[in-house]
Design brief:
The complex is a heterodimer of chains A (about 800) and B (about 120). Helices cover about 30% and strands about 15% of the residues of chain A. Chain A is built from 22 helices and 25 strands. In chain A, a hairpin with a 4-residue loop joins strand 2 and strand 3 (about 75). Chain B is an all-alpha fold and about 120 residues long. Chain B is about 85% helix and about 0% strand. Classes of the chains: A alpha+beta (about 800), B mainly alpha (about 120).
Chain lengths: ~800, ~120
């Protein structure tokens, strides 16, 4: 009796501790998270900033001085290269540790370790795509280069010295919420992060769709509807630019690409909006007489912000820009002499090969008329709260066989043909960091050209401007030397002619320097006109953004940073300009109801800008999407044969030039539809669905309300993202904003005796949701304004507003 | 007395030990010097309520309650001070129950001794 009571009195408190200190499902360990001594309250940063701090770290070689400006951007003053990257690692971890850790775990297929079994398919996918395999190859490349090696080791040491200084109470908030602890950083994690960038920018592929379409409709239709060059284009390297090199002979294509049955697979199409803009004007077009360079990379926006701003100053180095948390150096930025930026090329550097295995052991496969052995790798996936899982991945000489069996209900796998091997540039040895090492220190055009030769993937349009009044752009990366259209379809993995057989020499990558038009630009459209002797890809992003940029730059004179800034937020739609005049004529107003009529007159008066309050933009956007559906869906949506619609470009061509095309008729109805029928139906559909959702035409119909732009938290934690931002822009305008995708960094650099930088990203320097520097730049970004960027000459340079200083000494 | 002891011990020990040390403190303190069940229940309750509210405010007010507001949104309760209440009251209830258990434990053990 008494023993029982005593026992109960002990058990209750123990149960309480257990229940409130343990994570159940997605519920955080409640009191571990809520208590004010070690829980989230400790992450509430004071609004006032500590002005002076000094710490002793044995990892540093000499004294380092870091000053933080009024947006908490660190300006690192070091005495040598090692210390500059060491400090970069330290401050980046100080602000972004959880983000760096989480992103590299994601890349490496190690999420199950922290979130449990629910991430198992994602982990398998990352590993089976060869992310770690590629990162290791990349490490080999970086370790072979003394400068890259020093960068990466110093950066890693800086991160780890910060991690080791962390007490439990100061652990970033998300660790407390998800209940795990940071682990030591490794050089491999830097490589993983760069690979993940390749995965984001260069993992799309439509070769399965293309294979299905060829099988269903034949080559003639394919050539007609999926041409190798767009109807409307304004290429990155201006049309007519001469290629002053003797091209290598192209490899021979196989006689017949073969009957590949792509079958029941869906591909992930490259999402439009993952693209970017950049441009540079020569001094002849600017007020100052010196070049201006602008760049805005579009990515899936998130908090903590994708980018981290920093200035690095050491002997031989003084550069400012944005870095990726987890990789040393500056990716997009400027120094006293030059400025540079990037947009995605979308080269075809990912191919699938159908593999014929000898038997179900998958130990050998047919290649070049003989059986060849596979190798295999066992991926051990640790799972929180459960036994680890071993997953075997077979490798051919092409690369990993991603799936032998399709996982159920995992969206990313829809992308992958079962039993096919993946050949992907991201699996090759590379040393991208060296490119940024050299650019950060670059002084002139020659330094720029040399830096580019080290860059493998993801291929980027590197734009450049220098104080010597040189401007240039290069579609740059390691491009396989392919026969025309190699990889447009799934290929037969047994024929050596289908293998990648060499590389386009780096100095023959499409490039232009100081073109007569006085500017260079890119917006992910075709790299070149059709005279370029090599095949890079058959399809690029639609040309509208590029066209608008070029139209504006062509007429621009006496440009200033402000005219360029306003251009970055230009919402004008070239698509509307191309389509509206013809489409409006096809609508018979007599057939519209009252709301539709009102909508019609609004569109008629529209200035074609996707502004926040533009009701016409909402109607036009829905209307044209529906029209595309009306034209193509009956032909291209067939059960069990996944295909994709022809491009927007081809659709516009059809509407403008082929109104009597056989594709217009809906094959599922007895009637013969005309283009006017479809245009009318889609217009009514757009107005009706808006009315259904938002009531009569009014404020709720405004484009910003429909688009609903916001910046979510990286792990989609509610409350940690931004509010909805009522702003304009659209995927096909220069200001390429959609719901959660858009300009992740806007930068304008005016070169000159001393360069002037301007920039902003949607978020803040700190990754801590409890810091006022977590999202302090969002409103400025949303309003289309830029901040001044301070390229300081010394820690006491009065040009910057410094709010805090951190001194690091060895002893 | 119980109140003061728990308040001070909880404050000092939580600087270095996990939150659940308040369970041990309440249990032991009330087990040793808790005079009545009521005291053993309410002294730790109010000691932890006061301590946790105080420390949370000490961190949150200079932060302009930015973080507490975000966490409130995460939990779906909208107002930052509700998160504060939930935190403190939950901690207080745990402490109160532990204190009461400590007191009852002593009674159980003493009763055993007396009858032996």
């Amino acid at each position: 009796m008494n023993k029982t009571k005593a026992l109960i009195c002990v058990i209750i408190p123990i149960l309480l501790i257990y229940a409130l200190n343990t994570k159940f499902g997605d519920t955080p360990p409640l009191l571990k998270f809520l208590n004010p001594f070690t829980g989230f309250w400790q992450n509430a940063e004071r609004l006032s900033v500590n002005p002076n701090q000094s710490i002793v770290l044995k990892g540093t070689r000499e004294k380092i001085e870091i000053v933080f400006d009024d947006r908490m951007i660190p300006h690192v003053f070091a005495q040598n290269d090692h210390d500059a990257y060491y400090a970069q690692g330290y401050v980046t971890a100080m602000h972004r540790l959880w983000q760096m850790d989480f992103q590299t775990r994601y890349a490496a297929g190690r999420l199950c370790e922290v979130v449990g079994k629910k991430a198992i398919e994602l982990d398998r996918y990352q590993r089976r795509m060869g992310m770690v395999y590629g990162a290791q190859k990349s490490m080999d490349g970086m370790m072979a280069d003394p400068q890259a090696k020093e960068m990466i080791f110093a950066y890693t040491a800086g991160i780890n010295d910060y991690i080791h200084s962390l007490s439990g109470a100061k652990m970033p908030l998300e660790y407390k919420l998800l209940d795990f602890k940071p682990e030591d950083w490794t050089p491999l994690k830097c490589a993983l992060l760069l690979k993940q960038m390749s995965a984001v920018l260069a993992m799309g592929s439509d070769e399965f769709y293309m294979t299905n379409i060829r099988n269903k409709f034949g080559n003639d239709v394919l050539k007609d509807l999926f041409p190798d060059y767009p109807f409307k284009e304004d290429p990155i390297i201006p049309t007519g630019t001469k290629w002053n090199f003797k091209p290598l002979p192209l490899p021979e294509a196989p006689a017949d690409p073969g009957n590949i049955t792509a079958g029941n697979i869906r591909t992930k199409e490259k999402e439009e909006g993952i693209g970017s803009n950049n441009w540079a004007l020569s001094g002849s077009k600017t007020l100052s007489g010196f070049p201006i360079l602008a760049n805005d990379p579009h990515l899936d926006l998130s908090l903590p912000s994708i980018w981290y701003q920093i200035q690095l100053h050491a002997p031989g180095l003084n550069t400012y820009g944005v870095s990726l948390p987890g990789a040393p150096g500056i990716i997009i930025g400027f120094n006293e002499k030059i400025a540079w930026g990037v947009t995605n090329v979308a080269a075809d550097i990912l191919d699938f090969y159908q593999i014929k295995f000898k038997d179900s052991t998958h130990r050998s496969y047919w290649y070049n008329n003989q059986w060849k052995n596979t190798t295999f790798q066992i991926e051990k996936i640790k799972i929180r709260g459960e036994a680890a899982e071993n997953d075997t991945v077979f490798y051919t000489h092409h690369g990993p066989v991603v799936y032998l069996e399709k996982p159920k209900s995992f969206a990313k796998s829809n992308n992958i043909p079962v039993g096919s091997a993946l050949r992907w540039i991201a699996h090759d040895k590379s040393n991208e960091l060296k490119t940024f090492y050299l650019l950060n220190r670059g002084k002139n055009y020659n330094d720029y050209r040399k830096a580019l030769t080290y860059f493998t993937a993801p291929a980027q349009n590197f734009i450049f401007a220098s104080v010597d009044n040189d401007i240039a752009i290069t579609a740059n990366g390691k491009f396989p030397l392919k026969w025309k259209n190699q990889g447009k379809f799934v290929m037969d993995g047994s024929d050596p002619k289908n293998d990648w057989q060499g590389w386009i020499p780096a100095d023959q990558n499409p490039t232009v320097k100081n073109p007569p038009r006085g500017f260079v630009s890119s917006a992910n459209q075709s790299s070149t006109d059709q005279t370029y002797p090599y095949y890079i890809n058959w399809e690029f992003s639609p040309y509208e953004r590029g066209k608008r940029i070029n139209d504006r730059l062509t007429v621009m004179t006496n440009a200033t940073a402000d005219s360029i800034r306003r251009m970055q937020t230009d919402n004008y739609s070239i698509h509307a300009q191309n389509l509206l005049p013809s489409a409006m004529k096809l609508i018979d107003e007599g057939k519209l109801n009252a709301t539709q009529k009102e909508g019609f007159s609004i569109v008629k008066k529209w200035n074609k800008y996707y502004d926040a309050e533009a009701v016409a933009a909402s109607i036009f956007d829905l209307w044209t999407k529906r029209l595309q559906y009306d034209i193509w869906d009956d032909d291209f949506t067939v059960a069990n044969i996944p295909m994709k619609y022809p491009s927007r470009d081809r659709t516009v061509q059809l509407i403008l030039n082929e109104p009597d095309s056989k594709w217009i008729d809906n094959v599922n109805t007895p009637a013969t539809e005309t283009l006017s029928d479809l245009v009318l139906e889609s217009f009514k559909f757009a107005c009706d669905s808006l009315e259904k959702k938002y009531g009569p035409i009014g404020k709720d119909w405004e484009w910003a309300n429909l688009k609903h732009t916001n910046v979510p938290h990286l792990a989609k934690i509610p409350g940690f993202g931004s509010k909805t931002l009522m702003i304009g822009g659209g995927k096909m305008t220069i200001n390429a904003l959609s719901e959660t995708n858009g300009p992740s960094w806007r930068m304008v650099i005016e070169l000159g005796k001393s360069p002037k930088g301007h920039g902003v990203f949607p978020g803040g320097q700190s990754g801590n949701p409890g810091s006022k520097f977590y999202d302090n730049m969002i409103d400025t970004w949303a309003n289309g304004q830029l901040y001044d960027l301070f390229l300081m000459q010394s820690p006491t340079d009065p040009s910057a507003r410094i709010i805090s200083k951190l001194k690091i000494s060895k002893k | 007395m119980v109140f003061i002891v728990i308040l001070i011990a909880s404050f000092l020990l939580q600087m270095v030990l996990p939150w659940w040390i308040i369970v041990v403190i309440s249990f032991v303190t009330c087990g040793l010097i808790g005079k009545t069940g009521k005291i053993a229940m309410w002294s730790p309750f109010f000691a932890v309520l006061l301590l946790w509210t105080g420390v949370a405010l000490f961190k949150s007010l200079p932060n302009g309650n930015i973080l507490a507001t975000r966490v409130a949104e995460m939990f779906g309760v909208k107002l930052w001070w509700l998160v504060l209440m939930i935190s403190s009251v939950l901690g207080a209830v745990v402490a109160g129950l532990s204190g009461y258990c400590g007191y009852q434990f002593r009674k159980a053990v003493l009763f055993k001794k007396a009858s032996a």
